[in-house]
Sequence to fold (138 residues):
Amino acid sequence: MNNPKKTKPLKTPKFKLLHNMVTKSTLKKPIWLKYTEQEIKEIILKLIEKQPELTCEKIGLVLRDNYGIPKTKIYGFSISEVLKEANKYQDPDLKNLTLKIENLEKHLGKNHGDKKTGRSLILSKAKLKKVVEYNQTK
Fold:
């Protein structure tokens, strides 16, 4: 009986190098983008004036969707840097945790017997305390 030899599959590397990786040095301003660096900073400050609850991530989405600005890194700065210069930066972790605690307390006001929410409130307050302590040590 003839047994055909089994061929081994070709060895392929587990991880292929990404040749199209984008780094900070390769980011260039597209030709079609007409905004200047100063105009983008003004737009960011105008957005935070209108809606102070916006985080840096949300401002980036608004810039992308409404103004057609893909990334502020193209211009060499970040949204948080602009907000820090204007003293309007809030730590997103701190902001989100305080909002969560407010919502949980409002819910517990209506639903006194909700034990899961009570525990969640305790854990959220502990997280908030840790974040505040971390920000003070920075």
